[in-house]
Design brief:
The chain is an alpha+beta fold and 371 residues long. Helices cover 38% and strands 23% of the residues. It has 13 helices and twelve strands. A twelve-stranded mixed sheet has the order 1-2-3-4-5-12-6-11-10-9-8-7, sandwiched between helices. Helix 9 packs antiparallel against helix 10, helix 10 packs antiparallel against helix 11 and helix 11 runs parallel beside helix 13. The chain is globular and about 70 Å long.
């Protein structure tokens, strides 16, 4: 009871994804603009469906109580057939809460990791582009001239935007965006790279060493302003509850909050799944849960530098500074070298005034040189 539709048949199942219409990748696959797959329980009259966007984005629609469909899907993942080939993780958006038990059922021993998210929308009535760009920074549209302004390789997502624009006669219908440049380095970028009819979804990133300088606001404002002036009527801004900075920028720009939804993650690798459970709990302030997962990993056979970093961050959140430094020192002894993550983890920031902090930083710098 699991059938793959051809593109010309997609319209038969589109009505099953009404609630997921705000997911533009899902809408883009159903419209035929973006590559993907659509599986249903019945080719002629589908009542249950799954849309897959490459890179492991899964969207469920229709009847969640279709045992035959759900069992066939689970079997396909176990057998690593076409639907499960080369899949390392699943990012799942259910059409309704009724799908949650199915998500937990898909992979044996893997509960879907829930992340609460908010969708904001910028349109003609809900957006203002006030921002101040600090001295030394400049904004640039993402086009071929960037290669003359930036030394070294451009960030991967910026290169992706350039490629998408190069492959079409109407580049603004595929992707666009802006970057912030400092001393010939691309330090922040915002881009719209998923566009369905007149809606587009924005993504953004700021180099960890340049955060808290208003760059996310600047590049996002420039990108949204360009979008609304070039045929886009609504820019979607989707971010996790725990991403406080992204929520603040969306609110600062005057975007309208339209809904809250939940995304689920399943990682096939056992250790990887546990680490993601711990990360999610840390982001949500559930420090006891993070410690419980980390302790379980430590008691197992696999030792991970990420485990000890997470334990250190959780211990700091619980107010145990000595334990936090102990775990962090173990993490760096195992090769932890992410200074940006260390310095930007909220629970660890109160520790930065302690003398032990510089020892951890110095060890990380040695790790980076060793690489």
């Amino acid at each position: 009871m699991l059938y793959k539709l051809e593109k010309e048949q997609y319209a038969r199942a589109a009505h099953l994804f009404v609630q997921n219409s705000h997911h533009l990748f899902c809408a883009g696959v159903l419209s035929g603009k973006y590559d993907g797959q659509l599986f249903v329980d019945d080719v002629e009259n589908p009542t249950t469906a799954l849309t897959i966007k490459p890179s492991s984005w899964w969207y469920f629609g229709g009847d969640a109580h279709n045992d035959g469909f759900n069992e066939a899907l689970r079997d396909a993942l176990v057998e690593r057939s076409e639907i499960g080939k080369d899949v390392g993780a699943l990012l799942i958006a259910p059409e309704s809460p009724e799908w949650i038990p199915v998500i937990h059922y898909l992979v044996e021993g893997r509960q879907g990791i829930a992340t609460g998210r908010r969708l904001y929308i910028a349109d003609g009535d809900h957006f203002h582009s006030d921002y101040v760009l600090a001295d030394g920074f400049s904004l640039h549209f993402i086009d071929d001239s960037l290669e003359e302004k930036v030394a070294g390789d451009l960030p991967g997502d910026v290169q992706d935007v350039l490629q998408m624009r190069a492959d079409t006669k109407n580049p603004d219908e595929m992707a666009f965006g802006f970057v912030a440049v400092y001393e010939q380095k691309c330090v922040a970028q915002a881009y719209v790279d998923c566009i369905v009819e007149t809606r587009g979804e924005i993504g953004l990133y700021t180099d960890g060493s340049f955060r808290k300088q208003g760059l996310a606001t600047a590049v996002s404002a420039a990108t949204i302003e360009y979008a609304l002036a070039h045929g886009i009527t609504a820019v979607h801004w989707d971010c996790a509850f725990s991403n406080l900075s992204s929520n603040r920028v969306a609110q600062k720009l005057g975007l309208r909050r339209v809904l809250e939804h939940t995304q689920y993650l399943i990682v096939f690798d056992g250790l990887g799944h546990q680490l993601n459970v711990a990360w999610t709990a840390l982001d949500e302030g559930q420090f006891d849960k993070t410690m419980a997962v980390c302790t379980e990993i430590m008691q197992g056979e696999k030792e991970s530098k990420y485990t000890y970093f997470l334990a250190g961050a959780a211990s700091a959140g619980l107010g145990n500074e000595d334990a936090a430094f102990g775990y962090l020192e173990t993490a760096v002894s195992l090769g932890w070298d992410d200074l940006v993550e260390l310095e930007n983890q909220p629970t660890l920031q109160p520790l930065q005034q302690q003398p032990q902090w510089q020892r951890v930083v110095a060890h990380i710098q040695k790790n980076k040189v060793a690489i």
